[in-house]
Specification:
By secondary structure, the protein is of the alpha/beta class. 40% of the residues lie in helices and 15% in strands. The chain has a four-stranded parallel beta sheet with strand order 1-2-3-4.
Length: 139
């Protein structure tokens, strides 16, 4: 009947994404919800490039790595201080610099929501993105 226009999935591997995309006839695969952060960049090995090519959004959960990137990560804190931002703001902005990536941070406190909102309205430069990716390589 054509009632489903788009389909979202969670934690699909590259093979599962390819198979789901091939199986969908009148619908399209719109999103894959995955763990993705500066500390967990493993999806860059195949899933993220595929999603970019196919126009599939990546809904990045745990974008602050269970809070480890929000505070206590010295390398990120030093980088953020130079930029006059918080660690959370830099980590979230780095994610939004990626095509089709949408971070979904958990915020248990209104102050966290306000802080996280400070990740928008500015962009990391190419050199800054490269520096962060050197500091936090794909593992």
């Amino acid at each position: 009947q054509g009632k489903i226009m788009s389909v979202g999935v969670s934690n699909f591997s590259l093979q599962q994404l390819v198979e789901a995309n091939a199986a969908l006839k009148k619908s399209r695969l719109a999103s894959n919800q995955m763990s993705y952060s500066l500390l967990d960049r493993s999806i860059e090995r195949g899933i993220l490039p595929y999603c970019e090519r196919e126009g599939i959004a990546v809904m990045a959960y745990y974008p602050l790595a269970h809070g480890r990137l929000a505070s206590g990560e010295r390398r990120l804190e030093e980088f953020a201080r130079r930029r006059s931002k918080t660690s959370s703001q830099v980590a979230l902005n780095w994610l939004t610099s990626k095509a089709n990536v949408f971070p979904i941070p958990r915020a248990s406190d209104p102050a966290h929501v306000i802080e996280d909102a400070g990740a928008s309205g500015w962009r990391l430069g190419e050199g800054e993105i490269a520096e962060l990716e050197r500091l936090f390589p794909v593992r």
